[in-house]
Every structure is written in C-alpha cells, then in structure tokens.
Design goal:
Pfam families: URO-D. The protein is of the alpha/beta class and about 350 residues long. It has helices at about 10-15, 35-40, 50-65, 75-80, 120-135, 150-155, 160-165, 170-195, 210-235, 250-255, 270-275, 285-290, 295-310, 330-345, 350-360; strands at about 25-30, 70, 85, 95-100, 140-145, 195-200, 240, 260, 280-285, 315-320. The protein has an eight-stranded parallel β-sheet. Helix 3 crosses helix 5 (about 120-135), helix 5 (about 120-135) packs parallel to helix 8 and helix 6 packs across helix 7. The longest helix is centred in the middle third of the chain and has 25 residues, at about 170-195. The two termini are about 25 Å apart.
Length: about 350
C-alpha cells in the first residue's frame, strides 16, 4: 500500500483539532536525511542546495504520505554559522570537525549569527521558501533549530563544555546567551517565511546531564527561545530531546510547548499521564532496533503498541519514531508504519487495535 490517504495532512490536522472524524492519526516517521534515498541523491548533494533540500522532502511526502515536512540537515548548522568547522562526508550526515573556539577568553569574540548571511542558514531559508511553493497549504512545514544549550556545546566542543558546568559555569552561561540570540534570529526568519520552528536539544537529555544541570543551564535559554517564538507569532513549539527525559517533562510543559517528541527509551504512557493534558505527545518507535534493523512485522507491532498507549492523550498524539531514522532505514519499514496507522483509522477503536496487536503477536 502506498499513499492512499483520503485527506491531506492539513485537512486531517484541522479535523482532529475541531473534534471531527479523520481518515487516520497523524504520523511522521522522521525520515531525516534518509530523504536522500527517496529523492535519489547523495546527502552531500543537498547540504548546500536549497532546491534539493526542499525537493527531497516533497519526494518523501509524495512517496509515504507523512504528516510533517521539516527543513533540517544536521545539528551543526548554527554553530557553523558562528565559526565552527563542519565536515561534509560524500554520502553521510554532516559532523562537527572543529568548535568555533577553544579558549574561554575567546567567548567575547563570538557574535550571534545572521540567518540571512552566515554559513548555510541562508540556504535553509531559501529551501523553506521553495518548499512552500511546492506544497502550498497541503501540509504543515517546519524548520528545525538546535537548542541554545546544545549549540553552546558545539561552539566550545562537547567534552570541554561539559567541564565548564563545574569549572566555569559563568562561561557556559555566556555561551548559552550568545547561542540563544542566534536561535532567536533564526526563529524570526523562519516565522517570517511562514514555517513553524521545532527545537532539537539532545544535550539537554537526562541521559547526558542531570535535571539539576538542565534547569540551571538549559531551561532558562530554552524558555527564552520558546517565549520569543510564542510572542512573535503565537506559534506553539514542538521540542525533541533524545534519551531519557521523564524527570524534566514537567519543566518542559511549564515552558508552554505545544508538543514533546520523546525517544524510545522513554514511556509514551507515562508521558501521557504526566503531561498529556498540557502538550501533544509524539513518538516513539525505536529508530534503530525496530525501524532500521527490525522486520516490517516488528514495526507494525511497535506502532500498534504506541497507539494503544497514547491515542487518547488529551492534547493529541502523533505516531512517530523516537528520533531521526538512520539513513538506510528500509522503505518497507517506513511504509509499514504509515500503512498501520491507515489501517487503524480515526477515531481510534482501542479494542480493534488490541485485536490487531494480538494477531501480530501470534
């Protein structure tokens, strides 16, 4: 089964938001740079090519029928625009080669990036404009932004920035301060084009730093960014943080986010019970062991389990992978996630889904 949807993503979202029937739950496999495989190019071919970035997104949407398109190639675009060096493999995701600075005293040399001039930020902005031309109002389009705390680590180097938490907290705050100014400038440019910013903040994970460290160094700047976006255009932001996040769910909900995307190591059911009345829940099929390495039947099983756990979340639920999919994730596994959601339909009948799941387990 290919894309047999009866509604566009925009129509589906509007129907569900207004308490009406729809063809299915929203679903976003989060294919990330795997769109290059759908589009038929190397990843390096769209790192600096706005039309290729947009066209790869649209090709993926036409192929699978996912409910969200996002302009985002890697986590290092903002640090690069502020002076970091990024390496671009021929056919793999870009990676950090060298942070912007290596000494605390050089923090004063950093300045916020200009999204219209610096690094690849203008390429991404042009991709957003082109994407909108291609899909019009058919599907909601987003633009990824790395969180200020995470970007601070790429400006100074991950290992060295971790040391600052205890050795020089003032320096880390300075890095976060300049990072949030870059993030706000980029968010404004995104909103001016008409897309919705989404925030990815992997270094804020409780798998990486303690909730105490998160609350001291990340949360104030993350909230400032979210408040800026909300004040500028009343947009509700979706935040994704990798790894375990259960101890900071309430902190995130307190920022007024519109949705939280959780990793597969976290519990959809627990997240729904904790903050489902305050934010939409997105997630969380394992991107590696299930989507990349598993069978289509394993994908179907985990997708059904997630639906049963979270379909009744008060602020809504979107079926999604727990994080970006590996580039070589089999198409048949992505298709199975989409087909399973189509078969479930909307509104969700939990008894029917339980029966489908029982068949999967036999």
């Amino acid at each position: 089964m290919l894309n047999t949807d009866l509604m566009t993503p925009a129509e589906r979202a509007a129907a569900i938001a207004n308490g009406k029937g729809a063809d299915r739950l929203p679903c976003n496999p989060n294919i990330a740079n795997g769109v290059a495989r759908v589009y038929g190019c190397k990843i390096s071919e769209f790192n600096h090519n706005s039309k290729a970035i947009a066209e790869a997104q649209v090709a993926t949407y036409r192929r699978f029928g996912c409910d969200s398109l996002r302009i985002f190639t890697d986590l290092f675009t903002w640090a690069e625009a502020m002076g970091a060096t990024v390496m671009f493999p021929d056919d793999a995701t870009a990676d950090l080669a060298k942070p912007a600075i290596s000494r605390v005293e050089d923090i004063k040399t950093l300045s916020p990036a200009d999204p219209y001039k610096d690094g690849r930020l203008p390429v991404h902005l042009d991709a957003m404009k082109y994407l909108q031309e291609l899909v019009k109002d058919e599907i909601k389009c987003a633009a990824g932004i790395v969180g200020p705390f995470t970007n601070a680590f790429f400006l100074f180097g991950v290992d060295e920035a971790l040391k600052l938490i205890y050795k020089n907290p003032e320096a880390l705050h300075k890095l976060c301060r300049i990072s949030v100014e870059t993030c706000k400038a980029y968010a404004k440019a995104v909103l001016d084009i008409g897309l919705t910013p989404t925030i990815s903040d992997p270094m804020s994970s409780s798998t990486v730093v303690s909730p105490k460290v998160f609350r001291e160094f990340s949360l104030p700047y993350l909230k400032e960014l979210i408040d800026f976006i909300k004040a500028y255009n009343e947009t509700k932001v979706v935040v994704h943080i990798c790894g375990q996040t259960n101890r900071i769910w309430h902190d995130l909900a307190d920022t007024g986010i519109g949705g939280i995307s959780i990793d597969n190591v976290a519990s959809l059911k627990d997240c729904k019970l904790a903050i489902g009345h305050r934010a939409k829940i997105l997630g969380n099929v394992d991107p590696a062991d299930i989507m990349y390495l598993g069978s289509p039947q394993a994908v179907r099983k985990k997708t059904l389990e997630g639906i049963l756990d979270a379909y009744d979340s008060p602020k809504g639920y979107m079926v999604m992978s727990g994080c970006s999919l590996p580039v070589e994730t089999p198409f048949e596994n992505i298709q199975m996630m989409m087909d399973t959601v189509r078969e479930v339909g909307y509104p969700v009948d939990p008894e029917r889904v339980a029966g489908m799941l029982k068949q999967c387990r036999q």
